[in-house]
Every structure is written in structure tokens, then in C-alpha cells.
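My hope is that you will study the protein record below before we discuss the fold together.
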Amino acid sequence: MADLRSYLDAATRANTQRSYASAIRHFEVEWGGHLPATADSTARYLADHADRLSINTLRQRLAALANWHVEQGFADPTRAPLVRKVLKGIKALHPAMEKQAVPLQLTELGAVADWLDGAAILAEQNGDAVRSMQHRRDRALMLLGFWQGFRSDELTRLRIEHFDLRPGEGLTGFLPRSKTDRDNNGRTFKVPALSRWCPIDAVQTWIAASQRTEGPLFVGINRWGKLGDTPLDVDSIVPILRRVFAQAGLSQAHEYSGHSLRRGFANWANANGWDIKSLMAYVGWRKVDTAMRYVDANLPFLLTSTATPSTQPAVIAALPAATTPAPIPNAELTVQFALRSYTQSSRRRSKARQLIEAACLARHRAQRVDAEGYRFHISIPDDAELEESIAVIFDDMYRIADNNACYLEATIRERKGDRRWE
């Protein structure tokens, strides 16, 4: 039976399991709903959160409720016409533009790669082996993530023993699974060697510095230089990238995300004449509309070309400057939250607090108000997307708390006004 349970658990991904558990807890504990749910209670739940949660978050909550009812053998209330009609009405009354990651341009990639290389050399000269290893790891993570268009979760799944690395030629690797690989078939990928900002050299240098021949490619490094046995947490990728970008002097480093590498590569490939079929095959996209979401609309594909990556990166020509829009006033807000561990572990609670600060609040110019780090002032453009931006903050905070086995209570309120969000 133990083996059967492990296979059943493996059929649903860990992230999905945590997300579903969090959604069920939100419905039953925080909202006060009863399970099994009725179509009427499910519709009221949607209506109560229509102005605070994005349509995608509401769909995720419905998926969690549907999964719970199916697994427990109850009728699925989310399929009722009433629920579907309410969801359609919410989408009509609360439209939201899809937020896209800021693409990392090739010149920015090169600037950060050169800074990391110089910083690693300087750290070695100063006898700081720990800092040197961190810079080598971060450089490999960024360059490989860009030139293969990897997501954050895909970078955490790479393993050294799955690589056939040939300096000066290229790298062949195997990705065991990814977000869209529902059957867990995995895929083989290839990355060419480049004359500048080469991912092959960066990965080889990092593996040599780590002195490992197997295990996760990207792992944590503690203050004494000891490497972790498990992959970097997926929630740590964005803070690492933003920290590196800020150290290298990129303006607005807090606006970049894990998808910035993927979008940056897609735009570079498009500008260098790749057709959509070549890009999809290289990155691993299965649908055309998915690939098109990553490419700027003002750079249409050149469908006559089937080029592969150049051995020397080409710099994208600067686009004409857009007309400067009128400034939008900012909403000055206070975020206050509390974390309580499922267990007695304070380490997970501390980690969750740090990730919330780095991944959720820093991009909004957060200023810590209290010494413990549970109260912050943030600033968000007070436009039509304010509610959506706040919903994204809440969603990210709850996800990080749940991933670190913590309960979260959070409130956002205006510093000089009556608006309040919970």
C-alpha cells in the first residue's frame, strides 16, 4: 500500500498538491465554506472574491474544488451552469490585462555576465571562495536560462548526470519534466557554444567549482561554502536574479522575473530571423499562441527563415522611443502580515518572510517599517490595474507561505485613505 500511495502522489505534482491544499483551506477555513460544496455556495464564493482575485486565480480555486469533490466521490459543483455563468460575468465586469515579464535584452545579459565574471575573479583574489562560487553559479544559471529559454522550475530540475558537455562545441541535456509535460516524458535539449557570454563555459566553470559529478545542477550555498543536496527552491530563482541584476547596475532590477530570461531569448531569436516553428522546437513550446505570448507584438516573425542560434550573439537594434505617457499617481500602501508555522519550525517561517519581502514586495519599492520585517510601506500605480496588482501580491504571498508550511494573515491598506484589502 505504501508503494501504491507514493505512485498516486507522484501522479499529481507537488506544486499542484500544495496549490490545491491552499485553495481548499481558503474556501473552507478562511471564507467559511462547507465541503462538500453546492453550486450556490461555490457561486457565492466566486462573487465574494471577484473584485480581489484575478480570473486565473479564481479558475485555480475552482480546479481545486473540482479535484476535491471528484477524489471524495461527490458531484462536482463547479460544473453547474450557475457557477459557469457567474465566472463569465466576473470576467466581463473585471477584465484584466495579462501581465508579462520584462524581457532581458542581450546587452543587459552581457553586462550582468561580465560583472559576475569580474566579481568572481575579484572574490578569488581576496580569498572569498564562497562568494566566488555564488557568482559562478548565478552566471551559469542566468546564461543557461537565457540561451535555452528555461522557466524557473525547469532550471531547478536540471541534473549534472543528464548533461553531455563538450567545451567549444555545445551541450546536450535532458530535462526530466516541465510544466507542460503532463505525461512526464521529459525532453532532450541542445545548447550551442558561443564566442561571448557562453552558457557552456559558464556551466563547465560552475560544475568544476562545485566539485560534483552528479546531483542537481543548481543548489544552495551556505555561508561556510557547503553546497546543498537538494535543488534551489523555485521561489528563490527570482530573488537571485533580481539581486544579481541590481548588483550589476541594471535599472529597475526589481521588475524582472524568472520569465524575463525566456522572453528575452524569444525576442532575440525573433529579431535574428527565427521562424516560429524553429523557436517552438528549440524552447519546447507545443502551441503557437504560447510562443507568441513571449514575443513583442511589434516584432513579427520572419516566416521564411529557419535559422539556428548564431555562434556569435547579435545585438538587437534599438527600437524607436515611444511617446512618454502622462505620469500616473501612486497609491501609498501599508502591507502588514503575520506567519504561523504548521509545525514548530521557525526556520521555514523566517524563510517565508524573506521570500515574501524579496519576491512580492521589493518590486513595489518596499520600505520596512518594523524591525521584525512584517510591516512594509509600498507604492503601486493607482490606475485601473491597482486591484489586480494587489491580488497578485496576495496570491504570491499565500503561495510562498503555503510552500513553506505556514499560515498567512495579510492586510493591505492605504496610508492616507480608507481603502483596505484582505
Notes: The first strand starts at residue 164 and ends at 166. Residues 103 and 260 are 4 Å apart (CA to CA).
